[in-house]
Amino acid sequence: MCGCGPAGGRFARVRPKSPPPQASFNVASITKVATGQLRVTFTTAFSSANYATMCMLEITNALSEGRSIKVDSQTSGSVTLNSYNASANLADPTAISVVGFGDQ
């Protein structure tokens, strides 16, 4: 995830059906926990769990309306993201981009 310069940021872009990430900085690993759920583990942890996380979905089919993504849990060393389809069920998007901003 990336943010306040290299010392305080991280970023990743990953296709959930085929990790590892396509691009990343300060990310040790990305794990597919379950369908629609990814955990991003940082190389260097933030100073606390009080950092900002932004995430976006990439959907490449006509069924993208109503899709959403949210932070499921966040610690100083990782963040878990949940991606939902229009029926509010966990579902894999085409790709997820995630950025984190905070102190180390």
Can you describe what's shown?
- The chain is mainly beta and 104 residues long.
- Strand 6 and strand 7 (78-84) form a beta hairpin.
- The strands form two sheets. The chain has a four-stranded antiparallel sheet with strand order 2-1-8-5.
- It has one domain: Sandwich (Immunoglobulin-like), CATH 2.60.40.
- It is built from one helix and eight strands; from the N terminus they run αββββββββ.
- Helices cover 4% and strands 49% of the residues.
Supply the CATH class.
Mainly Beta
CATH topology: Immunoglobulin-like
CA radius of gyration: 13 Å
Total of helices: 1
Helix/strand/pairing class, anyone? mainly beta
CATH architecture: Sandwich
* Strands, total number: 8
Major sheet details:
4 strands, antiparallel
Q: Percent range for helical residues?
A: under 10%
Q: Please trace the helix and strand order, writing H or E for each element.
A: HEEEEEEEE
Describe the secondary structure blueprint for this structure:
Elements: H1 5-8, E1 9-14, E2 23-25, E3 27-34, E4 37-42, E5 52-58, E6 68-74, E7 78-84, E8 95-101
Antiparallel strand pairs: 1-2, 1-8, 3-4, 4-7, 5-8, 6-7
